[in-house]
Amino acid sequence: MTNLDFSVFSWQLMKGFVSSGLIFSVQLTLIAMAGGILIGTLLALMRLSGKTWLEVPARIYVDGLRSIPLVMVILWVYLLMPLFLGRPIGKELSSMVTFTIFEAAYYSEIMLSGIQSILRGQVYAGQAMGLSYAQNMRYIILPQAFRNMLPVLLTQTIVLFQDTSLVYAIGAYDLLHGFETLGKNYGRPVETYLAAAVVYFIICFTLSTVVKRLQKKLAIIR
């Protein structure tokens, strides 16, 4: 059995192979989170609109994407979008599009729960003030829904960060790919995969701790 050797993890090598992958993983997470929450909120509003022509497509979108493995969606977007556009869009852009549309389905469920958690009295109060449906949503319901669901939204974002490792399927250079490349170049695949697991754990555990503290603060505010 070969002894483990972690001497390969010098600052220069980590900076050269891993840092760019980490930057892309963070960028992908933030872009997919922002786009996913925006689209997810719109989908939630469509499902609550009471109009069949809005509700049905939104429900099909959410239920459909939640029933498909993410890695398959990554491959479909990467392989099919160039056929429709007539030109390649690149691994990075393909990853961003995929994660945004995929995560929107999950963020939609979270926002739907957040909106439905608002007491009806709040809605009636807005109506009594003469606010329209859109104004009621903008000024009263959505701000409270975002605050109530913020810990859950951030928890889903942590899961999103973990899922970014799946872009290996199309060869995008993310954090995991950076560690993998380092291991292949220096003949230490076991050590680099172990190191990648430790880095993912540290990042996700730290973020989870922050979310738990935020959740306690929000509970006190309520």
Q: What does this molecule look like?
A:
This protein is 80% helix and 0% strand. With 222 residues, the protein is mainly alpha-helical. α4 crosses α6. It is flat and about 70 Å long. 28% of the residues are buried. The model has no long low-confidence stretch (mean pLDDT 89).
Give a quick set of tags describing it.
single chain, 222 residues, mainly alpha, 8 helices, 80% helix, 0% strand
Write the layout of secondary structure elements.
Elements: H1 11-47, H2 52-66, H3 70-85, H4 91-116, H5 120-128, H6 133-163, H7 175-185, H8 189-221
Give the structure's gist in a few sentences.
It is built from eight helices and no strands. The chain is mostly helical.
Mean pLDDT: 89
What share of the residues does DSSP label as strand, in percent? under 5%
Rg value? 21 Å
Distance between the termini: 57 Å
- Alpha-beta content class: mainly alpha
Number of strands: 0
Q: Unreliable runs, pLDDT <50, ≥5 residues?
A: none
Give the biggest beta sheet. none
Gross morphology is flat
Compute the number of helices.
8
H/E series:
HHHHHHHH
Residues in helix, % = over 70%
